[in-house]
Design the sequence.
């Protein structure tokens, strides 16, 4: 079986939760070349700036169509830069609570180095270039989360000018 | 020419609509932004040149200098905060 024919969809934007084990199983399914899988899961904190319980819930808005398209382009770029076999990105939208999973990035490769790098590259890229916006519900009311300059700096390490937080 | 303009997040909230059809003679996204600013006070507040915002043309990140084309889908939104 040609592994390229059994790859699942590379990008999912969904309201519901995801199962990391199932996602990884799908990503590596039948691919005997794989010797390394690196995954990152982002979760909802109950704080922004260190105060416990200061974030009661988080609402994620996105730009349907552009979101999928931009992440597909990021995965293409990861394939161009790193020796990886497959990548999967799942991002949730809608109303989330502290402890909820928000995002999964998983990458397969022959050896660990390439999948570690590609996983971090994809997260850095996604943070500053994929059209998602977070709105926090706090005891003082709702507020849109500010973009971080540190996220721009993270992408700059890969030689890409993010130009997001400015 | 006609373009479809979309707004997201805080910009969508302050302008009060998710998007609008615009008849424009703007040649770039920057010129379109400038013409939108004069529509209402909310447009001026959200899209004014003092505001840090990002834009996309046909669902690809773009710049103020990006040329506009007929039938384009243009989006204006705040810096992104996903992940």
Sequence:
């Amino acid at each position: 079986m040609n592994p390229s024919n059994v790859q699942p969809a590379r990008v999912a934007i969904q309201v519901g939760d995801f199962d990391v084990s199932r996602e990884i199983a799908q990503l590596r399914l039948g691919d005997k070349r794989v010797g390394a899988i690196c995954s990152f899961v982002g979760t909802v904190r109950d704080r922004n700036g260190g105060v416990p319980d200061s974030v009661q819930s988080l609402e994620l808005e996105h730009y349907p169509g552009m979101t999928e398209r931009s992440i597909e382009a990021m995965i293409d770029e990861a394939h161009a830069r790193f020796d990886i076999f497959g990548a999967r990105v799942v991002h949730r939208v809608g109303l989330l609570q502290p402890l909820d999973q928000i995002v999964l990035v998983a990458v397969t490769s022959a050896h660990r180095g390439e999948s570690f790098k590609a996983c971090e590259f994809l997260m850095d890229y996604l943070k500053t270039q994929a059209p998602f916006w977070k709105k926090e519900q706090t005891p003082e009311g709702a507020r849109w989360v500010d973009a971080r300059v540190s996220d721009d700096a993270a992408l700059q390490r890969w030689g890409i000018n993010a130009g997001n937080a400015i | 020419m006609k373009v479809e303009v979309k707004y997201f997040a805080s910009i969508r909230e302050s302008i009060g609509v998710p998007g609008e059809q615009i008849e424009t003679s703007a040649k770039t996204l920057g010129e379109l932004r400038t013409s939108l600013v004069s529509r209402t006070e909310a447009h001026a507040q959200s899209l004014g040149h003092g505001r840090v915002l990002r834009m996309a043309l046909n669902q690809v990140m773009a710049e103020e200098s990006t040329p506009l084309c007929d039938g384009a889908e243009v989006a204006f939104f705040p810096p992104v905060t996903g992940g």
